[in-house]
UniProtKB/TrEMBL annotation:
Ranges in coiled-coil conformation: none
Entries under PANTHER family matching the protein: METHYLTRANSFERASE, METHYLTRANSFERASE DOMAIN-CONTAINING PROTEIN
Gene3D superfamilies given in the database record: Vaccinia Virus protein VP39
Record-level Gene Ontology MF annotations: methyltransferase activity
Domain Methyltransferase: 40-129
One GO BP: methylation
The keyword Methyltransferase belongs to this UniProt entry's keyword annotation: yes
Name of this chain's protein: Methyltransferase domain-containing protein
Domain of life of the native organism: Bacteria
One protein family per Pfam: Methyltransf_25
CDD domains: AdoMet_MTases
Amino acid sequence: MPDAIFADPRLAKIYDAFDGPRLDLDLYLGIAAEVEARSVLDVGCGTGRLAVLLASSGRTVVGVDPALASLEIARAKDSRVTWIHGDATTLPQMSVDLATMTGNVAQVFLGDDWEATLRGVHGALRPGGHFAFETRRPEERAWEDWARVKPRVLVGVREQFDLLDVSMPFVTFRHTYGFPDGSVITSDSTLRFRSRAEVSHSLVRCGFEVVDVRDAPDRPGREHVFLARKVS
């Protein structure tokens, strides 16, 4: 089930405000141009920020997400995108040039669902199609910075972040939102931190070859950006 931060309608409405400028998205627009992608599948599209940018560039775009509240926000932004409520394992038949997973999407899969997702992406790509996604480097210990995050107030809502548990490869944290009417909504999330080798091996097992592993311009030295190609 999606975390409340994506699935609760009140939180979905304020997600973009708290997410802030998406400086990471230029990287994916650049990759789409590099591989000459005319059609793109955005897995875990959330409120649709990348999908809308891709559609604005004239590409055919499909966005899929299991959080209906987030998807409704996305649908209101752009009717050119085909929005699908679901995940990579439940996609209709398609054959796209590029699939993407931005932000923390690749890390929300905690067990066998990771390779099931990879196989779903593989099935949605045309032969030779590409897959681009990012994942945080475990050795950079991002959670140590998260533990120092201060509360903030945006659009009249107070957000507090708490680090709950670090039991590698899993890191669990909580967002707490306080609304002007006095109501409070909490959302607990767990991410899995995989090594570069672990990610590479899983891609190969699921029918990809790793074309490149790049740095993330918005978080230099802290993430791996994988570019893989469907080979079988």
